[in-house]
Amino acid sequence: MPWTMPFRPSRRSLLAGAAGAAGAALLTGCSGGPSPEEEARIPLERRMREAAVRDSERLLERYDATRAAHPALDGQLAPLRAAVAAHAAALAPAAAGSRSPGPASPSGAVGAAAPTGSAEPVPPKPAEALTALADAERKLSEARTIDLAGAPGELARLLASVAACGAVHAHLLTSNPGAAS
User: Fold this and answer.
1) 143 burial level (CB within 10 Å; 0-12, 13-18, 19+)
2) pLDDT of the residue at 39
3) Residues 6 or more apart from 70 whose CB is under 8 A from it?
4) 120 CB contacts (<8 Å, ≥6 apart)?
5) Separation of alpha carbons 73 and 83, rounded Å
6) Which long-range contacts (CB under 8 A, 24 or more apart) does 78-84 make?
């Protein structure tokens, strides 16, 4: 009888399984959000825009937390944060004018007090903090690129533009080693 290697799942299948389990856990939890019937009545574009705005707002919180933890990085982060705030405003559904991200103030007042419970802590070293922020930009850019497939025409173009900008932000945050050490 020939010897066979025991089955070992690939890293990709483990990650996919974990993501699926996390998604199932989120779907079964109490969200207080709209019921499935109510959500089905909300147009796809509006749902996609609202999700994109929430993602941008979480990214703004990460920028603010990083700026609060590392004030010396403020000059480098302020223009990128302002662009993320502009993206959130551009992605906001037209009828939902009440949800606008805070201004890109130098003090970072929108989320500077403390990151939300779901936010990752800001690394203690500035270079590591920039890398973590770049990773967040990159992940959001990749997610938006994936969302393009199901987005209506104009929203797809906007998501493509914002995703490209996020990729540029990730590059800018990590392309100047030694600037924030």
Assistant:
1) middle
2) 61
3) 122, 126, 129, 180
4) 62, 132
5) 16
6) 78/104, 78/106, 80/169, 80/172, 80/173, 81/108, 83/165, 83/169, 84/56, 84/59, 84/60, 84/169
Torsion of Cα atoms, 90 then 118 then 129 then 61, to 10°: 30
What tens digit of pLDDT does each residue of 78-96 get?
A: 999 999 999 999 999 875 4
Round to whole Å and give the CA distance between 59 and 75: 17
In angstroms, the CA 27 to CA 36 distance is 11
Q: What percent of the chain has pLDDT over 70?
A: 61
Segment 90-117, tens digit of pLDDT: 999 875 444 444 443 333 333 333 334 4
Angle (CA) 111-158-45 rounded to 5° is 85
In this structure, how many other beta carbons lie within 10 angstroms of the beta carbon of residue 150?
10
Residue 111 Cα to chain centre, angstroms: 15
Give me the chain's average pLDDT, please.
76
pLDDT confidence of residue 47: 93
Q: Is 129 within 8 Å of 174 (Cβ atoms)?
A: no
Kindly state the average pLDDT of the residues 140-156: 94
